[in-house]
Amino acid sequence: MNIVPKSHHNIWSGPRSRCLAPVAGIAFALGCFLGVAPAGAAGIVISGYIANPAGTDSPFEYVQLKATQNINFAVTPFSVVWANNGTATANGWVNGGAITYGFDLTSGTVLAGDVFYVGGSAKRIDGNNSTDISTENWIRTIDTGTVAGDGALGNANSAGVMGNGGTADGIGVFQGLVSGLTSTTIPVDALFFGGSINTAKPVTGGYSMPDNDHYSSSAVFGNAAAPDNTFLFPDIVNNGYTQLTGTYNTLTNSWDAARTGTNVILSASSPISAINSQITLVVPEPSSILLSALAVVTVSASALRGRMIA
């Protein structure tokens, strides 16, 4: 699952409240030990996608995702939106029609480090008659060639609903259902790929972005002034699965190594190993966290007893 434990012994360095530090230490320690990410964690990050599989694109497009925390989607739903830009509008991710297409993630479970998939119902690695990857963890699939997107977001299209690049196309991951999204909802993760921004940035409004390895939530995609939100992953190639490589730190909820993208050329016989996730999660060692928290509690309790006796 590409999870790297990382020791963090000096968690409580710097000034802390004498009363709150032990409580916070225990809460943080137990959270890490139980696999629950601290507030602000992405929850899900994008690790790869295929936008132009062999033959007809629908229903063969898909996105590979990696969980950064344990998620029960029946309790904590997420959604994924694909952008297929001709000319983007001020509505950004919630435009619908031929521009954006939504998937609701409302059932199934994943553990931190698990890889899972969202996309077309065919569950093939590279188009029709290619390797069957239906045994992988597919959290949500739709026959995108004949069925509209969840939450009435996006039209069915036999030619595909994920953009094929050129003008920038994108993928956004959100906490909550598609029906609850607005034009200003900030994704937990998002990216754009293609040859140029062109009409993917409208005159007003546009695609809201998260604070991640390449973008800032303080501006829409395509903003060229500070902050620079113009980053593009490689343009799409035919039969090309875009494999992302990077390192996400679940303690700091940030990227230790920003993602890069490589187009892996697939064939009908490509094995699932050809698209193995290259996203590494760095997680704190439970033993180190617990020992540090318990040490704080012990010292604080001893000091408190000393004051009470005095």
Annotated CATH homologous superfamily of the domain at 41-238 = Lamin Tail domain
Spatial separation of the terminal alpha carbons = 53 Å
Instruction: Provide the residue-averaged pLDDT.
Output: 86
Q: Spans of 5+ residues with little confidence (pLDDT < 50)?
A: 7-38
Structural class from helices and strands?
alpha+beta
| Spatial shape | globular
Largest sheet: 8 strands, mixed
What is the fold named in CATH at topology level of the domain at 41-238? Immunoglobulin-like
Give the percentage of residues in beta strands: 25-35%
Helix and strand pattern: EHEEEEEEEEEEEEEH
The assigned CATH architecture of the domain at 41-238 is Sandwich
Number of helices: 2
Write down the Rg: 21 Å
State the CATH class of the domain at 41-238. Answer: Mainly Beta
Keywords summarizing the entry:
310 residues, alpha+beta, Immunoglobulin-like, eight-stranded mixed sheet, four-stranded antiparallel sheet, 2 helices, 13% helix, 27% strand
Explain what you see.
A hairpin with a 4-residue loop joins strand 12 and strand 13. The strands form three sheets. Strands 1, 2, 3, 8, 9, 12, 13 and 14 form an eight-stranded mixed β-sheet that branches. About 10% of the residues have low confidence. The chain has a domain of 198 residues: Lamin Tail domain (Immunoglobulin-like, Sandwich), CATH 2.60.40. The chain is α+β, with helices and mostly antiparallel strands. 13% of the residues lie in helices and 27% in strands.
